[in-house]
Fold each of these.
Amino acid sequence: MEFLPAKGLASVTTEGVATAFQVTESNPMVGLEGRTSLLVNLSKALSSNPVFFGHDARPGNIVGEEAPQSIPGFHVLTPDIRFSGERIEGI
């Protein structure tokens, strides 16, 4: 699986999204342009917040060892946290 940082998201096109989702005349998708715009705007948000998403602007950087733990009120979910029935353990 290849990770798609902000640079990749910024280059997403409506035609590319249509191809990825196998959109055809017989298999239409409502809001294709809006969905594409959302991905491009996400790239801008990732790039403009390196504290949260790192200098490579990857959404996955918000969790794990690289996460911004020094920000007050920011809590990172890690693999050490387990959900058990109605309880979350390890917090």
Amino acid sequence: MEEEYSIVDMDCNPRNRYVTLIPHESPNDDHDESISKVLLPEGYEHKKCLYGVYHLDNISPDCVQVSADDINKLVVVNESMIETIDIYQGEYWLIQENHIYGVLNDIE
């Protein structure tokens, strides 16, 4: 008997020191970049920020730099090191733990 899979997001359990991320919506993300008040040359690309803030979703069991206590916290990562995997089961953002620059903690 064949197993049937439904099109739903599945939980990704990373391995080999990878962690899964969820993009964090910044309050600055809602501005429209298509409207420019300055005339720019054709083909000009706006420089994107090298770093991004993400929610730490899950970690590999062999991680040593981040722990289960850091899950659901915000982390700062190098955007160019994120691997986006878009497969039938869902879209996942992964990065190796050594590319996490820091965990953001609430100041009380």
Amino acid sequence: MRINQKKNGRQANVFQKTLAHALGWICLTVGVIGLFLPILQGIILIVIGLTFLSVYNAFIHRHLHTQLSKYPTMQKRAYTFEAAVVRLFGQP
């Protein structure tokens, strides 16, 4: 019974990580497209996508927060969103 529980927990973790990566790349791609289309908010979607990806990638996390330190309001929102992503998808 314990082996199945560990296996199911590991599968859930892999699924959550895959889902976070997929959402991150989708938001990032739509954000880049949004830079050229006036309907979409490109920068906001890029930051959201990078925040999804930064939970599992230290390089992106470090550089995202270095760049956002120039914009305190957006940095605060990114930290809040990152905490929500960690609660939803779990810490790596």
